[in-house]
Amino acid sequence: MKETCILIGAPIDSGQKRLGCLMGPSAYRVAGIAASLEELGHPVIDEGDLSISVTGTATCANPAVHHLDETIAWTRALAAAGEAACRRGLPIFLGGDHSLSLGSVAGVASHAKALGRPLFVLWLDAHSDYHTPLTTQSGNLHGTPVAYIAGRPGFEAFPPFPAPVPPERICLYGIRSVDTAEHAGLLESDATICDMRVLDERGIVAPLREFLDKVRAENGLLHVSLDVDFLDPGIAPAVGTTVPGGITFREGHLVMELLHESGLVTSLDLVELNPFLDERGKTAKLMVELVGSLMGRKVFDRPTRSFG
Fold first, then answer.
1. In this predicted structure, what is the pLDDT of residue 298?
2. Is 142 a catalytic residue?
3. Could you give the domains of the chain?
4. Is 125 in the active site?
């Protein structure tokens, strides 16, 4: 029996300032994510979209930070939904901006802690997202999840992260835009940094396999967080944080196929899709195709693509 995929919609726009990511979950559904997974033999449970009630009055010493109460509410809701989903299958979180991962990974971490197994995180993104609420200049909390996951200070307003993931179990893969404060923090960490310079020099496969070997050696769970801007904007325009020089169509599918072959992935984020910026669903369809490769579709199985 193939893994049951549990779809959890998170229409989040609070982590940044460019509206549109809240339409992401609907776009994935319209692009056929459930049907694609079912064609591969995976049972699919679509739990619909989460909702929140914002009642807090959290504060932050950094006046640039915005939508703090809303983001904390999403973090709590996603952590609870994620932990529950992990007990029943492979959760796929449909975002929503990348502040989604503050909650999704917290839920997965609680599940890993209950199992007594280490959690590893593969961050497929143009950005390192290693800011804290105190270091961000934009105030956009979608740039803070990795710091929260790793247990950096500055998140006192948030629920305590259930089991911080040591940086040596985090791989930042495909990054090519890192702010000064993030850079300084990363230099002090043991995170695996596979920026585009590393991938240009060593290729796509070797660094990823090395990280996957670490996960396997420690019998770890692997959470994959896939940001649209991991991909080159030429093939994935529907994101408000485009950075040139990203992963190509072929490279993206290769990464997903390697992840499938590893058999290690236990949860997945799909984030930063802004359908308002898309071209006839081009990016949403590509993201759904990449999920297909992650879940078992081989290169010779793919139908002819059409954006018509």
1. 83
2. yes
3. 5-301 (3.40.800.10)
4. yes
